[in-house]
Amino acid sequence: MMMAFYLFLACVAIQVAFTYAYPSVEVKQGQALYWRSWREPLASPGWRGFGNYKFLSVLLLLVMGVLYWMFK
């Protein structure tokens, strides 16, 4: 598991280094791909029913909590 952690750190360092080495030129069409703040995706209503990302996020947290409690 430590090797996975070290590889993760290496990937993050490489990504940060390349981001600073080769900054991208902003294009008008590309601005739609970026959120202006971290709250913007939470303001979106999402899909209805079980496909709603807010519902699925809470469900995932509950399942992970139950699994943690069961195998603790």
Distance between the termini: 19 Å
- Largest β sheet strand count, sense and barrel closure: none
Structural class: mainly alpha
Count of helix runs: 3
What's the shape?
flat
Parts with pLDDT < 50 across at least 5 consecutive residues: none
Radius of gyration: 18 Å
Number of E-type strands = 0
Query: SSE order in H/E notation?
Result: HHH
What's the assembly state of these chains?
single chain
Strand % is under 5%
Mean pLDDT: 88
**Helical coverage, percent range:** 55-70%
Secondary-structure topology with pairs:
Layout: H1 2-21, H2 40-43, H3 53-71
What is this entry, summarized?
The chain is an all-alpha fold. The protein is built from three helices and no strands.
Description:
The protein is mainly alpha-helical and 72 residues long. It is built from three helices and no strands. The model has no long low-confidence stretch (mean pLDDT 88).
